[in-house]
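Standup notes
- HV: blocked on the assembly model, inputs below
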Amino acid sequence: MNALVEVVDLTYRYPDGTPALAGVSFSVEEGDRVAILGPIGAGKSTLLLHLNGLLLPQAGRVIVAGIEVTRQTCKEVRKSVGLVFQDPDDQLFLPTLLEDVSFGPLNEGRSAAEAQRQAQAVLGDLGLAGNEGRAAHHLSGGQKRLAALATVLVSRPRVLVLDEPTGNLDAEGRAKVAQLLRHRQETLVVATHDLEVARAVCGRCLVLDRGRVVASGSASEMLADAALLERHRLHVPLEDGTQPDVTGSRIHGF
Amino acid sequence: MSFHHLDQYAHVESPITSTPPVVRLLATVTLALGVSTLPLGAWIQIALFAAVVALVAAAARVPATVLLIRVAGPLGFVVLASVALLFLVPGETAFRLGPLRVSDAGLLRFGSAMSRSAVALGAAVLLVSTTSFPDLVNALRQLRLPRAVTTSLGLAYRLLYILSDEIERIERAARSRGARPVSGRRRKLLVGIAAAALTRSLARGERTYRAMLARGYHGEMHSLHSKRVDLRSALLLTALILITAATTLSAYWTG
């Protein structure tokens, strides 16, 4: 079975020697929607940076769309993986929204006219039409989240990797982002400690704590295990959410 | 992010913003060179160059007050640098300021320096007001400036935004905890804010760079608005260069 994303025994230490990931292994198939749950400092963001080749494995392997992530292949890998960062302000760095969303297509070698057309289409799809000429700091928190998502969706990645997509959002913003993600066709890997959003969006979960995968399984099983969640400093959802319509989701090899 | 307002007229549709940025840049350099090489006391030619700047400002829909305010800041440094001319250049006494004697030759040099600088700064302010920074960097690239320089400029621009934002946030947090804008501890507070902002913006800069890499950045900034130099712009620029040269030379012939 060929997984779209395969992480094998991934180990990473920060420059000061602190272990961030200690032998993490899992795989994600095309069409999967996987939530990576864990408390703050569990290593979620560090793991996601490896999926995009922004960090390279110190030990172990990361394979995306059949390509092992190395210094030589990371540019190729980034074409398949759209990474949305935790803080939208990190991702929106150009003077206008249109320029920000066009940044990826221009780097892929598209003409200015084509990049602009694609950017406008994505902004329209996400309900941000009319904001093309606005600066990121004039957008609301929810709009910034959507804009950061637009900067990645415009390049049509096969895997959408999101780091805390509902962080700093109010209830309405969280619901909007969750609804949007539920209707995306791409393979999803979502790092979050927002269990309600994980349940609404993802069919599978894995729990990461202190750089290790400590549990994995279907979202319904995992999120019902209050003892497991509490043990790993995750808040139990207060009310039942609708299960996403995800079929064939698999996470293997922990 | 107050820096964004520097180029707030870049997206206003006007004959100036429809001109390719590289032409705007060359026209600004031409005007600045022309006015700064005028001989002392070439008031008519200085007035002509000032009229050109005013006309361009009107065409670009940059209000006169905005232009004057933006020129006033850097002009203050020119005043500081050249005020000594009033007193140090030998010549007939024009008037006295207390114990200090202002000479007529000093007055002429100071007036020339101020007026020429004001016109050159006006042209530069118009350029940055009507041209987004990415477009300016692209224009410099078109002029074959080394890629290392243009890329560094682009990154520095983003870091300025980041730094400005961080300082605003930290200062707001300090004020919310009782720090008064004017107080004896203000200087100490500002040093603390600057240090915290620097530390935070280093981390922010690294994250932004990662976000750029994640979207295919490989050392080359592309702009959505890059425009080729068309025949009309090329003719306009040629005409401006010729007029500037003629105006400057006329000052030497008539002077």
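- HV (later): unblocked. The first helix of chain A runs from residue 44 to 51. Strands of chain A lie at 5-13, 19-28, 33-37, 59-64, 67-68, 81-84, 159-163, 187-192, 204-209, 212-218.
- Next: hand off to the docking folks.
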